[in-house]
Amino acid sequence: MTSFEIDRLDFTTPAISVWASGDERRTNWPVVYVLDSADSAGVPSVYVGETVSAVSRMRQHLQNPSKAGFRRVRVVIDETFNKSACLDLESHLIRWLAGDGHFTVLNGNEGIIDARYYEREQYRESFREIFEQLRLEGIFQRSIPEIENSDLFKLSPFKVLTREQAIAVEQIVEALLEDLATGTPSTSVILGNPGTGKTIVAIFLIKLLADIRDYEDADEIEQDSLFSEFFVPENRKLLKSVRVGLVVPQQSLRDSIKKVFRKTPKVSEDLVLNPFDVGKSSTSFDLLIVDETHRLNRRANQSSGMRNRDFADINERLFGSDDLSRTQLDWIRTRSTHQILLIDEQQGVRPADLSGETLAAEIADAKRSHRWFPLARQMRVRADADYVGFIRQLLRGDLRAGDLPDFGEYDLRFFGSVVDMQDAIRERDREVGLARLVAGYAWDWRTRGNKPGFDFELEGAEFVWNRTDKDWINSPGSIDEIGSIHTVQGYDLNYAGVIVGGDLRYDELTRQVVVDRAAYRDKKGKENLKKLRRQTTDEDLLTLIQNIYGVLLTRGILGTYVYVCDPDLRDYFSTVLRPGIDQ
């Protein structure tokens, strides 16, 4: 649709002055520009902006000490550009650059929501052409699919928020600043199903608060952005000495976020904590944002003897004794003045995870204090109906033939052969990347520690569990392995091939989904809470395993493929899923 050109010049006053005397669009037209420091010493950095007067904006930047390291500027000019298209292109380039990882992106993330405008899709096609031209010139190192499949992109704070997410962020920051000013403690809850962007909101909040704290008077804040009103000296002063942390219970996700924060100005990987870091800290936090709050632990058997000792020591130091009723959430409350808790009540996957009663109480308290922020819009799975709700009903055994909604172009398939499903996943991985096989923990992990051999066999094919539990999705060889709940919770895939093991079965007489305790091989996943004198009943275990498969079956952005081991459960799934999608 568009015919763009990219002007290239040195980022100096003489070069800008010469350039200004040319095309009138350089002084009076909506444009997008890219500043970079590729030839200067240190880590190369980049800044993306949009303006209606490129010459005036460049002269402003030249007077700003924070832009002194830049050496070159590229200005994208198009006769069809308008303000909305430029804001959109600016946002795309910032996100792609952050995901590419070659440059450190010096932009703030004060936020542009996903706005509609005239002929947006046609403009976005031209954005890809602009990207390819900039890639030829060395601004990008990787292709768009490679970038968009990376953790740097998916977990980046440089996000275009949905209106729902943006409103939640705006209200949370507004309330937090008010509480900081008055010295009032607070707890907020962000509640959402898989795929509603809870982790993205947490990361965005960390970066936004850092941007408000560190902005300078010379910085250009986009006045049309939803959060521009927060960039005032009073808020900067309020946040100057505020100690913030992002608590992430899951090790793999925590490591991935640390990797992103290492590439993000104004934040640090030291901000990303596990619950034990909080409990052991010698100083308190002003604000703790807790992702996957439902994965915080009760006083139960930990992964090692050292962790068990740590749990007891922290309880004794914080509460005077090893009070068995205390949880990691109590540590967080004790060690911080303000908390923002991100919760999905149906993603607890082990008996040691916080109880449903505890989570329900937190949600009820947040509702009473008007600090409850529900996220309803599902952002991951590209289906036209309530896919998450459908999956949860399917796993409960509540559906029958004819209950399959219209999911539009979403690629949901039921496979009668696991080998065929594996072949299909490998084909999807060749086509779009990030296609992986995952399964419930229904087989022993014989190869743990990279032992030779395989872990289980189906249809004569040998399968191996994930060789690493850190960033498994992007690890070499992961396409030939099977991921578990502990490698994929919190992550996106383009396609997920889910093996439902023998830990879930179907009772034909009662027409209910039931658990097979013996077939479930995660010892920590079914152990009793001895210290709390609480047994993990079959009913408890069924809920946890349904939660696990609920997570696995909601990872795929473009599609989910399903194979079921138990014959009766396979018949039930196929009765519901086969119309129109049989494989």
TrEMBL record:
This is DUF2075 domain-containing protein. It comes from the Bacteria. Residues 28-108 form the GIY-YIG domain. Pfam families: SLFN-g3_helicase. It comes from Microbacterium allomyrinae.
